[in-house]
Specification:
The complex is a heterodimer. By secondary structure, chain A is mainly α. Chain A is built from five helices and two strands, in the order H-H-H-E-E-H-H. The longest helix of chain A has 36 residues. Chain A is elongated, with a radius of gyration of 19 Å. Chain A starts with 7 loop residues before the first helix and ends in a 9-residue tail after the last helix. By secondary structure, chain B is α+β, with helices and mostly antiparallel strands. The chains are: A mainly alpha, B alpha+beta.
Chain lengths: 181, 351
């Protein structure tokens, strides 16, 4: 049986972004825990990687809206179907929102958004301490939420791959696998 | 005894794999976040160590808490180009938002009791880049590394009689700072002080060569020594009143100097002064032209993070700028969340 799969470009973006976003979340939670010189190294990766994720996410969202996703198996129970759709909406939302929140938060702080030496992004918000406080808190809390949703997504993917064996995992797998039916 | 596998069998192995993957991911995340190693020196612990007995003043900086804003300019003479291609060192006049402050975490610190005073600057370069620095009057930093800084705060607030003595025995580098604190004359004005960045940074010149440097600002005003007892008897905010009156009468200036390390000079240790006679370049003049109360002043919402640097300047092996950047970010985050506790005195008070 050959199940419908995401396009090669969609699969490439998925796995590339999976690596970027996981790295990003570990860098983010690691950098706020350290006072060592690694702090500056991590921050200097965090900013350009965040903007890269934003650009990739927009490209990917465009592809998803144009090309859609393979249909879920007809026998999938309705609650799981709903959870799949909702989690995808949340994941796309966070992929776009997190970099924008980081950029907006530094803008509200009046802190230069330097991606690398000589490459500075303009502020996207006027300076405001109160706005900064809200955005900073949102950036941190949503970062933890992002990691939790990714774990749930990973758990669901493995559940499809190992327990249900219904072709849902194979639709996004980097290489075509055999689907038992 | 082999059993035929039945499709309805509960796939225990698969669930074990899934649980292991998810549990391993969560554990790695918790480890990276430092949640599994509370003994690790974190910025939260450093801020807690700096916290005065009654707790930090809500809405204020967690250290160098009491301060006053000023605006002015940095007029670069172009000589700094020998060391760095930073646009802010090219000849020109660039706006400055600065802050006079006391090196103390106590908001009500009487001016006459603060041995160390501070000067912070945010200089806006012609290319839109920024040079931020937070300097102090001491010529050397008390300690060599971040762990020792934390231990110093803990010893200073310790109730044990021998705590400071034990600290000094374990960290002999503090002697140089102690000699300065015990012998250097006190002055009655922020304008009569020399302020030192202490941390070493790397400047890159137009040819791409790196130079390890430290910078200072040297007062134009002649320092007038005043006995400490006399300052201690003055009103608690006498430094603020003095600098307001002085700047109201006319601009106050400092010469900005950059000193290059010799090949063997310690770059990674701000408790060690570099020898006299190192190549020192006067790169321009800092002028304070107007003073503003912090509550409504332009310096209030600036994080004077010493790692905000223009192209042509970057951090060195000195461990402090990274630690300061990390700790200042948490201080800023906390005081921003408490902004309501330190409101502007008038709507639209901030420029």
């Amino acid at each position: 049986m050959t199940a419908a799969r995401f396009s090669p470009m969609q699969r490439l973006l998925h796995w590339l972004m999976a690596a970027c976003i996981l790295a990003m979340l570990f860098i983010g939670v690691g950098m706020v825990s350290t006072l060592s010189t690694r702090y500056l190294t991590l921050v200097s990766i965090h900013k350009p990687l965040g903007i890269a994720i934003l650009l990739l996410a927009l490209l990917r969202l465009g592809l998803r809206l144009r090309r859609g996703a393979p249909p879920l198996p007809a026998e999938l129970p309705e609650p799981m179907r709903l959870a799949a759709h909702l989690s995808h909406v949340v994941l796309y939302g966070l992929m776009v929102a997190m970099p924008l929140l980081g950029w907006a938060m530094l803008s509200a702080e009046g802190y230069p958004v330097v991606l690398w030496e000589g490459m500075r992004l303009p502020p996207i918000l006027p300076q405001s301490l109160e706005t900064y406080a809200l955005l900073r808190q949102a950036h941190g809390l949503l970062g933890y939420a992002f990691f939790a949703v990714i774990l749930a997504h990973l758990g669901a993917a493995l559940f499809h791959a190992l327990v249900r064996r219904d072709g849902v995992f194979e639709a996004m797998a980097p290489v075509a696998g055999r689907v038992e039916d | 005894m082999a059993q035929p596998s039945r499709p309805s069998r509960f796939p225990l192995g698969s669930f074990v794999v899934i649980a292991a993957v998810l549990g391993g991911g969560a554990a790695a995340f918790a480890y990276t976040a430092g949640w599994l190693s509370p003994e690790r020196l974190s910025r939260e612990r450093v801020l807690a160590a700096l916290s005065p007995p009654g707790g930090p003043a809500p809405g204020h900086r967690r250290n160098h808490t009491k301060g006053l804003c000023f605006t002015g300019s940095f007029e670069a003479n172009g000589a700094g180009a020998a060391l760095s291609r930073a646009p802010v060192l090219a000849a020109g006049r660039y706006p400055v938002i600065g802050r006079f402050n006391l090196a103390s975490a106590v908001l009500a610190q009487p001016d006459g009791q603060a041995r160390v005073r501070g000067l912070s600057l945010s200089i806006a370069g012609p290319d839109g880049s920024e040079w931020r620095t937070a300097m102090i009057t001491a010529p050397v930093f008390p300690v060599s590394n971040v762990e020792a800084f934390y231990a110093l705060q803990m010893a200073a607030k310790s109730k044990e009689p021998g705590a400071m003595g034990a600290f000094a025995a374990a960290h002999p580098e503090i002697a140089a700072f102690g000699r300065w604190a015990g012998s250097a004359p006190w002055t009655g004005s922020y304008a009569e002080e020399r302020y030192n960045a202490l941390n070493a940074f790397l400047f890159t010149d137009a040819e791409g060569h790196d130079h390890a440097v430290r910078w200072s600002v040297r007062p134009e005003a002649r320092p007038v020594p005043v006995p400490h007892e006399q300052l201690a008897a003055k009103p608690p905010d006498f430094l603020d009143g003095e600098i307001k009156a002085r700047i109201a009468a006319g601009p106050v200036r400092w010469t900005v100097t950059v000193t290059e390390a010799g090949p063997e000079d310690p770059v990674a240790d701000p408790s060690k002064a570099w020898p006299e006679g190192r190549r020192t370049i006067e790169v321009g003049t800092l002028t304070a032209e107007a003073v503003q109360e912090e509550q409504d002043g332009p310096c209030r919402d600036i994080n004077y993070d010493p790692t905000v640097l223009p192209p042509g300047m970057r951090t060195s092996a000195d461990p402090f700028p990274a630690a300061r950047s990390s700790a200042y970010a948490l201080s800023y985050q906390r005081r921003a969340a408490e902004a309501a506790a330190y409101p502007h005195s008038a709507p639209g008070g901030r420029p």
